Amino acid sequence: MTTTIVPTLTVESAALDAVKYDMYRNIHKGIRYVLGGVTTSAGRVDPGDDTAVEALGAQWHDIVRLLVGHAEHENDFIGPLLDIHAPALGSVIADQHEQIEHQLAQLEVLADRAVGSAVADRRAVTHRLYLALASFTATFFQHMELEELEVNPTLSQAISVEGLREVEHELVASLSPEEVAQAAALMLPAMNVEDHVEWFGGMRAGAPPEAFAGVLGLARTVLAQASYEKVASRLGV
Q1: Which of 44, 94, 107, 222 is most buried, judged by most C-beta within 10 A?
Q2: What backbone torsions phi and psi does residue 117 show, to the nearest 5 degrees?
Q3: How many CB atoms lie within 10 A of CB 199?
Q4: Exposed e or buried b per residue across 73-91, where buried means at least 16 C-beta atoms within 10 angstroms of its C-beta
């Protein structure tokens, strides 16, 4: 039986003031951005356009890989912290990750069905995919809300800022260059200028110069020109 994902706190009642170092903010902004985008794309796609439907399917497969990897990294690096400081909450998060992975597999099958269906049937199949993506997006947003309103304050009250920063650095160091680039391309368009300055400032302080230059170059390609210039000006680059 699938457990409904419902946070017990609200943005008014959660101890958000306790969050001094937010490991979730930027990646969650990026995930909301991309899930909203693919759901909208599924609702607008021309069922008679083979190329457009194939592109939608490929986009979804890329997102699935991202979300599965995201959950695995949380399990590996944040899960052990919850096991120590909030085991009941950690168990809920682990169960939700398992449920979400199952939903992602089902949605991949549905996306493949849309791509492979006859044109005469594709309007109905793509609409089914759209509804499934909308439902999954709502579920995943609730999952992220639980992490933001309950996991984040819990860990912030139990672990120092330096400790949380070290965990995040270890997580990022475990990523392949391809994963880093994919995450950056996802997050950057969804972040505000203060997020950008903080993120790039941390990278400039802790990463090799060539890595910083590479991600800054990526930002130039995924941000609007005015947004990139504002970030570059504040960074002094």
Answers
A1: 107
A2: -80, 155
A3: 19
A4: bbbebbbebbeeebeebbe
pLDDT tens-digit readout, 172-215: 889 888 888 889 999 999 999 999 999 998 888 877 888 888 88
State mean pLDDT over 16-42: 96
Phi, psi at 191, each rounded to 5°: -95, 155
Full-model pTM: 0.91
Token code pair at residue 224: 């609007």
Q: What is the SS3 assignment for 154?
A: helix
Q: Residue 63 burial by CB count (10 A; 0-12/13-18/19+): exposed, middle or buried?
A: buried
Q: Which long-range contacts (CB under 8 A, 24 or more apart) does 127-130 make?
A: 129/42, 130/39, 130/42, 130/43
Q: How far apart are CA 237 and CA 174, in angstroms?
A: 28
Residue 124 neighbours by CB under 8 Å, 6+ apart? none
Q: Which two tokens stand for residue 10?
A: 């609200």
> End-to-end distance of the chain based on CA atoms, in angstroms?
53
**Using an 8 Å Cβ cutoff, are 35 and 100 in contact?**
no
Q: How far apart are CA 89 and CA 77, in angstroms?
A: 15
